Amino acid sequence: MPRCHAGPVADAVQAGWSIDLPGEYCRRCGLSIGPSSATERGCSRCLEQRCAWDGIVRLTSYRAPMTTWITAMKFRRQWSWAEWLGDRLAERIDVCDNATIVCPVPMHWRRRLARGYNQSALIADTIARRKGIQSAALLRRRRFSPPQTRTTATDRRLNARGAFAVGAVDLSGWTVWLVDDVKTTGATLSACCSHLRQAGAGRIHVAVAAVADPGG
Q: Which domain range does residue 155 map to?
């Protein structure tokens, strides 16, 4: 753990915070659930809905202190939080074979130029190093659009439509771990999954630091 993060994490743990156990969220959609309220096919919120990916791993819901850490990572240039988050996610990811690759949600070059880095790519690179697999920028963002956090749920779907493209790659037989910092409505992740499927990806799993629960 980067030394600068040891204090904040220790304080949070002492105050009662912890990383979620698998049974505390739906492994299909990622939303928080009550005890025994999800099945292998999903929870009450997603059971009848189409899901673009095959499973999801998260650390927590999007609440304090995770909100503070992610904000610091994205907007205050404390990019080393990405390494800590990536390490924690790697501990919860199973890699079954060598035909597994990690792919970050891409950032438009204009936003990356302004920020200096893509935090999702930093998280993905850390996961790949810890698991001994490859991380690759399989996707690119075709157009600049407002941040999803500043749009409504409906606008987020429109915002993500046509925003991504996949490179000239054959993913037949490959399992892809798609990595982002936060899942909100899932519109961005779904759009990315669609392109990865078009490239032949056999299975797609999502790994995110946090999931925003409705009304949270």
A: 51-211
The answer to whether residue 10 scores a pLDDT higher than 70 is yes
Question: Do the Cβ atoms of 204 and 179 come closer than 8 Å?
Answer: no
Contact 70, 81 (CB under 8 A): yes
Q: Is the dihedral of CA 108, 71, 213, 130 positive or negative?
A: positive
CATH, residue 109: 3.40.50
Question: Does any domain span residue 44?
Answer: no
Span 141-158, pLDDT tens digits: 987 666 655 555 555 565
Chain position carrying tokens 């999801």:
56
CA–CA separation, 128 vs 126, rounded Å? 5
Number of Cβ atoms within 10 Å of the Cβ of 54: 16
Please give the pLDDT value at position 2: 65
pTM over 0.70: yes
Give the tens place of pLDDT for each residue, 180-202: 999 999 999 999 999 999 999 99
Cα 179 from Cα 124, distance rounded (Å): 6
* Residue recorded with tokens 């939303």: 31
